[in-house]
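Entry 14. Two folds queued back to back today. First construct below, sequence then structure tokens.
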Amino acid sequence: MKKLNLLFISILSMSFMYGQDITDALRYSQDEIQGSARFRALSGAFGALGGDMSAVSLNPAGSAVFAKSHASFSLSNVDTKNDTQYFNGFTSASDSKFDFNQGGTVFVFANNDSNSPWKKFAVSIGYDKMANYDNVWVANGTNTNNNSIDLYFLGYADGLRLDEISALPGESISDAYSEIGSFYGFGHQQAFLGYESYILEPDTNDDANTTYFSNLANGTFDQEYIYATRGYNGKITFNAAVQYEDNLFLGLNLNSHLLHYDRSTQLFEDNSNLGSIINNIDFENTLSTIGTGFSFQLGGILKVTNEFRLGLTYDSPTWYTMEEETTQYLYTNSDIDGPARVNPQIVNIYPSYRLQTPGKITGSLAYVFGDKGLLSFDYSLKDYGSAKFKPTSDSFFAVQNRVINNDLVAASTYRFGAEYRVNQFSFRGGYRFEESPYKNGVTVGDLSGYSFGIGFNLGNTKLDLTYDQANRSSQTQLYNVGLTDAAMIDARNSNVTFSIGFNI
């Protein structure tokens, strides 16, 4: 490999070479307000109601519904459980944590001019967690498709010159890995790992060689894949809303998004296939992503009668700027060469990229039975196929955007909620259904969930407690290249949320 002082060029060449794809676009496009306990108890069907801090994050007109200035804070115990099937293997994994998912304050200013049609003005600031990325699942089974992780490294190495994926004489693994990444990009690094670990061999030991073969023989492969993520997507909302006459509420939200996503994957593979030189492989990867973004919302609530209300909200796309870092480690055990540890101990830092997630339209209905209770319904539509990596003129991003547009579709979300009050107590329940964002309806399936909760009104202070649960199935490929067999995952997410709200 030719070693030139081309750091600036190498940064440009790596800018889009980590491999952002449809799964990344979908992950950051899927968001839902974690919300207060009352909000969650009605499964988020709050678009025509307002009067709740999380409802303000859903429909900005909701802050003007408050009669008095108000503040609320919410904590949740978040529990995830994944049942996974991979070939003949069945595994379960779970995770649980406490989380601060909502907090905010609204200030209400009444208009003292009784002749003015503008009755009230409200401003608020709030924080709502939009997505919780804490998750873990394990795929364990015997791959009978003759697919090994060697296909991953061969897939990247095919067509690459040997001198582009190998170290110079006397050059350390760290230096070679770093320089190959800087000069050529992520794909060359993967081929380098495969070559240096003896998984793949060149057909000829010539710098110009571009074809390779595997040191693993055909057969079955025992594989265990561990997937673990941490992180969140939070939204800080700056809100302003007005009340016109007695029946119309209008509002605007300006949102700042903060995103942090960490992922680690580890594959253990063993085989006893006749003719295999490599029998044991341990391949580890980490990814860290941070992002900031901006969006806005416009919303209105109309009291058609004292009982019947309509709501309408437009959510703009969210415009993100993302930064990513990766690390890798590979271990193999060869019958000829013995153990090989390819541990570059290098953090790959990639130039930032931009992502535009889809906008959303929400229509809402609510019927309020005086002080006895209410029924509410929200319908949302989001076109996941409109997500875009930017700049769209980049050839790699252009390909990924076409995949997104072809594979993802507009998906509807339906939310139902009900509340019944008895003296100081409120009893609540809800149901939600979200269509699959995938055209095939299988890669990520439909989501269904239910909720129920109770509230206690102390006058100026309100206490609320809610349990909610959602279920969704998916098929997740272990890798996007080579070893593309999918694990079948049945996910269950449940939350216990406690909120305290008080007038100020």
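Second construct, same run, same settings:
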Amino acid sequence: MKDEKIYDARISKEEIENLKDTIRALYLADDIPWVIGYSGGKDSTATLQLVWMSLKEMNPERLKKPVHIINTDTLVESPIISKWVEHSLEIMQNSANDQNLPFITHRLTPETNNTFWVNLIGRGYPFPRKKLRWCTDRLKIQPVNNFIKNKIVEHGEIILVIGTRKAESTNRARTMAKYEKLRVRELLSPNPTLANELVFSPLENWKDDDVWIFLMQYKNPWGLSNHELQTLYMSATEDNECPMMVDKDLPSCGKSRFGCWVCTMVEKDKSMEAMIANDQEKEWMSSLLEFRNEFGNEEGDRERRSFRRMKGNLQGNYGKLFHGPYKKEVREQWLERLLSIQKDINENGPKEFRSLELIRLEELQAIRRIWVNDKHEFDDVLPRIYERVLGKAFVDPTWLHNENFQAEEWDILKKVCSEMYPDEELAFEMMYTLIDVENKASDVNQRKNILDDINKTLAKTFYKDETDATEYYSNMMVRKKENGGKYNEKFLDYQPLETEFEDNEDE
């Protein structure tokens, strides 16, 4: 009886043939170009394979419109998966050309100013978490949306083909069911965030096992092995097994999570942990896992961050201030750690990863500009960290900076401030910021807003320490309350359990 239930759950050959007919009909229905999202995982592979098989069986003369295959490289993908995807896209494009199919591959990346390291190490954004999920939009959504918007401008409309399935989660099922009701054409749902984009999900009713059965029974049409993909999933499970259609109570390979190796939205990166545990040749990734666990550790994270928000203002709840960006010394330590890991992999890692860049030169250049220009850290320490770790000169041909004050002056100022104001936590920051503001405004044409800049600096840095800042903020809220003004009620009126406090509500 149990076997019959299992058999009924399997995707049938007839269903697959019907789905291929549907794909062909949708393709021929209009001139709207298609965009297929490809992550390298099982769902996107199965989706692309279905479309590929469907078009390959058509008369070549009818393949008039392009099908764009897009992959988003966040620049912090799991190196193993990133290498697999890079190789896959290359094979795909060559195979599409050889088979005269209208597929065009694209690898999208976030803008340099929006990468993970530029935000974490450069700006000092707290690591992503439940109430501060700044990474997904910047690293994944924006590059895709920019690509799609350009195609919409070019063609007026596009159809996005993705491998989302209702079985992935209750929330996913609920969302897909909602947009089913809004369908403007058969099987095509509107995108809630982008006008003139229709979404087609051919696998919407498939289970994990359906996906694997399809991939194992149908040969990959662009020439890669789906068994290699299965091996990747197997390596990312704790028991190194990929049970399919054996026992419905067993977990499927589909539960393995492939994504960014820096991801802190999950408590533990079980997929990477399993990869390392299951394969001795992947032990070189242990340093990545250790670093991720280090900067993603909630314990003691408040102490690593300034008690002011990103713009220098005070904000808080329940008698405590929200903490903002990471302090200068923390950002520098993490950069040095990241470069050291990269150097070790380049020198001692597997051959195919000897040229791996954990952080690109363009990102380092962007971080340098944030530190020196935006944060007024005129000691310009980044090139020295780079040269100390990697043993070579830092290349930055477009760098323009007033070098009246550098590391030597920085050290002198720091010493003077620590001697004269040993209890003033922000005295040094106030001084180096004021000096840098004045230095940058030395030209007559640049002095227009200097008084505003000075006032802003003083407003951000006149607190003695966090206790002093908390008292100041509390008194300000009390005065607003007494005068009938709008004030932060949560800060004054309610004292919660320690676990209720959240200090990550905005950037």
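Quick look at the second one. Residues 1-9, 239-256 have pLDDT under 50 and may be disordered. The beta strands are 34-37, 67-72, 103-108, 158-161, 189-190, 197-200, 316-317, 320-321.
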